[in-house]
Amino acid sequence: MRLVLLPIVLILCSAYFTHAYEDTTLEDDDFAEFEQFDVDDDTPVDDFCEDDNEEPVQKNNIPPPKDQFETNIEDELLVEDEDNEFEHFQDPEEFEGFQDSAPRSSEQPKITITKVPITVRPRWDAYWLEGILCCALAAYALAYAIGRAKNTSIAINFLKLHKPLLDDNFTLVGETGADVVSVGDDPGWRREAEHCFTMWCSGRVCCEGMLLTLKLIKRQDLVNVLLGFVRPSPDTLLIRVELGKDDSDPFVLCVAQKKFATRLSKEMQDLSVFCPERRAGDKHGLPSTLNVLSECAEATGAFLDARVCGALTQYHKHVQYIHVSDRYSGPKQMEDAATTKLPETERVMLVSLALGPDGGGDELRPLLLLVFYMLDKIKRLRLSKEALLKCEKRRQKVAEAWLRGAHAARQEQAAQRREEKRKQEKERILAEDDPEKQRRWELKEQKRQQKRKTPKMKQLKVKAL
């Protein structure tokens, strides 16, 4: 109990001394300012209450007098003035220490709003970028329509001029079905793209079929047309003739212009392997602009007879290349892509012809006749036994070299797999917390390395006499 009473006595004593030493000099006037605010706050409430009490007293819907209505409006205006946001500019206590001599203005600050004129008419010069883009799109669309029509007319003109010659040499000429460009209801070109047309011909001796590919300039592409002024390129006709297995002896031959001969010797697999040497056309009675890549000199002399040399001399500007091969496998494979199989080969004759500005006129018919003549020539061409034996040996060596390369590639792939497996095993052993296991694995690895370094020796047993 004493412990409880002692804090109570101390609290009472502290309260008494606090009251005794309280500042008695404070007067009621010190809090007059706060009382004034209380009165102001209470006054409008009483006025509103009186107004509310007076309204029910009216009877017979008699409107209030005009003086009273004006009084209420002035009160509302006064209330709005009290909430004015610029009232603090008129309060002298807000500017204590400011020079009294400075002129004071009772007017409120004015905010000037500049009137921006509204543009009624749009200014077309502000849309110059959109105008350029619209003109470019319109030009591209117009070039597409004109270029597509021009390429189609070239394909139709080819059919009108040269389809009778194809009909005389083949039983079936042209394509049928949807998206076919033809004259009337006859078979014609199949449209592969806006600048590419194909046509298959079959039913002739000395070949299994012939595929014509008409590769024209991309006239439907405005960008390609503009680039054509810098690097012009002609329309081309690619002829691919599928030769039969027994239609020719094995040989590889190519007659091409210089730039095409350089490119083909680097890109084509059969030419890079069997025809590494290029010879000028002068040595074979051809123009100097042509080069000859040949595997067998006997086959070259038999193929390039007087008629072929005369046609090539007369139309050498339109002949890009003539490629005859029994080991054609397309472009060379990349060095990184190691294959374990021999590439599939076929017997073909490839001819590329550059067309004139009108898409192939009178100059194309003699070249087509030359193609048919070369087909018959290949069928009749027979090599001597010595030349045929050399060609067969050369193909056998190439096949053996390819097999050795494929075997080396397989060994390298197997070594890479073993090395990868060994790395995974090492990581697994090091991840474990067993030092004895790690030590055994290191000893095993050391023995394997020593065994690889030890030279292999043959052990011979000699019988005693």
Automatic annotation (TrEMBL):
Assigned protein family? Belongs to the CCDC47 family.
Organism placement in taxonomy = Eukaryota, Metazoa, Ecdysozoa, Arthropoda, Hexapoda
Signal peptide (from-to): 1-20
- A Gene Ontology biological process term: endoplasmic reticulum calcium ion homeostasis
Q: PANTHER family of this UniProt entry? A: ADIPOCYTE-SPECIFIC PROTEIN 4-RELATED, PAT COMPLEX SUBUNIT CCDC47
Bias type Basic and acidic residues, positions: 415-448
A molecular-function term among this protein's GO annotations? calcium ion binding
Assigned keywords, A-Z: Membrane, Signal, Transmembrane, Transmembrane helix
Q: Per the record, where are the segments of Basic residues compositional bias?
A: 449-465
Q: What domain of life does the native source organism fall in?
A: Eukaryota
Write down the InterPro entries for this protein, in alphabetical order.
CCDC47
GO CC annotation terms, alphabetical:
rough endoplasmic reticulum membrane
In its UniProt entry, what is this protein called?
Answer: PAT complex subunit CCDC47
Tell me any Pfam family this protein matches.
Answer: CCDC47
Query: Where's it found, cell-wise?
Result: Rough endoplasmic reticulum membrane
Membrane-topology annotation of the record: Single-pass type I membrane protein
Q: Where is this region: Disordered?
A: 412-465
Originating species: Parnassius mnemosyne (clouded apollo)
What is the protein's major site of localization? endoplasmic reticulum
